[in-house]
Amino acid sequence: MTGEVHPDISPLAFLLGTWQGTGHGDYPTIDSFDYGEEVQFSHVGKPFLVYRQRTWALPDRAPLHSETGYFRSGGDGAVELVLAQPSGIVEVHTGRLNGTTIDLRTTGVALTPTAKEVVGVGRRLEVDGRVLHYRLDMEAVGEAYQFHLEAELHRVGEEG
Amino acid sequence: MTGEVHPDISPLAFLLGTWQGTGHGDYPTIDSFDYGEEVQFSHVGKPFLVYRQRTWALPDRAPLHSETGYFRSGGDGAVELVLAQPSGIVEVHTGRLNGTTIDLRTTGVALTPTAKEVVGVGRRLEVDGRVLHYRLDMEAVGEAYQFHLEAELHRVGEEG
Q1: Chain B residues with CB inside 8 Å of A76's CB?
Q2: How many domains is chain B built from?
C-alpha cells in the first residue's frame, strides 16, 4: 500500500487486503474439482486496484490457476477490470458496483494461439464483512455460457 | 521461485530475476520523458514465466506505468505474451525467440471504455549477460506505429 486510496477507487476500497478460502469448479468438459485460493487487492495511490489471484489443488497444494490485473472505476458506479491469465488469455470486463457487490461481464477476450477458446466470462464478487464470495460463469470450448467456479474467501490481512 | 523451471519455458530462463534501470519515452502526443524501472520474471514450476513491471518518475520516484502478465512458449521458438495494464488495456503478443532476443507484436488488444485507444504494440527484449535492453513501438491515439519507449536494465537479483 502507498498512502491514501485514490478517490476514484475509494468505492472499491472494501476489497483491499488478502483473502483466502476454498472454491469449487464444474464445467461439462472437465471433472468437478475443489481448490484452495488466495486473492490480494492492493493499491499504489493511483486510480486502480492491483488484483492478484492464485489457486491450488486440495489437498496437495500444487499450483493450479492464477491471474493478475487491475480494477478501475468507470465513474458513476461503473467498474472496469483488465486481467491476464497464464493460460494465454486476457479479459476486459465492465460492470457495476452495487453496495459491496460487483457484477462484471467481458466486453473483450483475446487469446494466444495455444490458449483454449474462451468466448465470454461473467464474474460476481460479493463482500459481506470479512467474507468474499465470488461466482464465475463462462462460455468456452463450444459450451454455452454457464456456471464454472464459485468460492468463499475470508479476510486474512488488511494489506494487499 | 518454486522448484525447477518447466522444460517448456527453459529457453526463456535467461529472463528470470529482477532487473532495474532507466528508460526514455517519446510519442507525438506527449512530452519526452525519462523514467526508472524495475522488471521481475519469476516462475512457479508451470509452463509460464510471471512478468511484473513498474516505472517511476525521475527524480521523485512517483509511480508511473505498471503492467503484469505471463510469458509462454508457443513451441519451436514461438513466444506468447499476455499482459494487463492499469490504464485499462490488455495485450496478447506473439513472436519469436532468437538466442536471447525476443521480438513480439500484438495479435490482440482490448480496451476498457475509459482507456486510451491503443491499436498495436511491438516489443523487442534483448539480454546480453546482466543487461536487458528493450524497445517498445506503438500505434495509438491516431498516430502511426512508431517508437515509444526504450530502456536499459541491469540484473539486480536472481530471484523474481
Answers
A1: none
A2: 1
